[in-house]
Specification:
- The protein is 20% helix and 18% strand.
- It folds into 2 domains: 89 residues, Hypothetical protein yqbg (Orthogonal Bundle), CATH 1.10.3230.30; 106 residues, no CATH class.
- By secondary structure, it is α+β, with helices and mostly antiparallel strands.
- The protein is built from 4 helices and 8 strands.
- Helix 2 crosses helix 3.
- A hairpin with a 5-residue loop joins strand 4 and strand 5.
């Protein structure tokens, strides 16, 4: 079984990753979903002497929230790489769903979709296959369907009836999918997540690593996990 995403970052154990999927951010760096003025208001800071440091703490808290929830909180452009796709080169089994023709659909070699890493994922701009000579082939948009309606579920790429995945692809890094992930605006980020960013930034401001605080990490401060856990993505998948 391939583990696409199981995560307990900052908790001290290894995070399993897919053996045939890779992920990279290709767009501009993300901007935290709260601004400096809100952080200063939360901390009751009125001067500007520590603005640079506060921005650093805000970004750190934002990054920790993203890693813990496995969500991308603001929109950015990403690229997912795969070595293979399910059912490479196999024709879609057509016919009556109640007859034997449906049976191969349940087998691994006939699975006609794959999931995109990171949530929420939405607009897909290109699916590119790299062939044996490393030349690029952009898959026509008429050959696949993007299922990204539910922002709480991983988006999927589904092969349309009659289409097949390109064959004769290279041994690794053979398929790339360019798409956008994240909430469209900072205001669209759930309020609970934004509040968790504020609490974590405040905790980092007050605890700078120079004391014997018993808390294991900022995720352990009261209320943080309660705010984040309803939005946490946990997924084990063979696709």
């Amino acid at each position: 079984m391939y583990a696409d995403e199981i995560s307990a970052p900052l908790a001290g154990w290894t995070v399993p990753r897919s053996t045939f999927k890779r992920f990279e951010i290709v767009g501009d760096p993300a901007t935290p979903p709260i601004d400096l003025n809100l952080v200063k208001s939360h901390l009751r800071i009125t001067d500007s002497d520590n603005d640079q440091y506060l921005n650093h703490l805000m970004s750190t808290a934002f990054d920790a929230c993203e890693r813990y929830t496995q969500r991308q909180l603001v929109t950015r452009t990403v690229r997912m790489w795969m070595d293979i796709v399910p059912g490479v080169g196999e024709a879609w089994p057509l016919g009556d769903m109640g007859t034997q023709s449906f049976v191969p659909y349940l087998g691994m070699n006939a699975v006609r979709w794959f999931a995109l890493l990171k949530t929420p994922a939405h607009t897909v701009t290109a699916i590119t296959f790299y062939q044996l000579d490393d030349s690029a082939y952009i898959m026509p948009t008429t050959d696949y369907l993007v299922d990204s309606v539910d922002l709480d579920q991983p988006a999927r790429i589904l092969l349309r009836y009659g289409a097949i995945w390109p064959v004769n692809i290279r041994a690794g890094h053979a398929i790339s999918v360019d798409y956008s992930v994240g909430y469209p605006t900072a205001a669209a980020v759930p309020t609970s997540i934004r509040q968790a960013v504020l609490i974590m930034a405040a905790a980092l401001w007050s605890n700078r690593g120079d004391n014997a605080d018993a808390q294991a990490d900022v995720l352990q401060f009261p209320g943080v996990k309660q705010l984040l856990d309803p939005f946490r993505v946990r997924r084990i998948s063979t696709l």
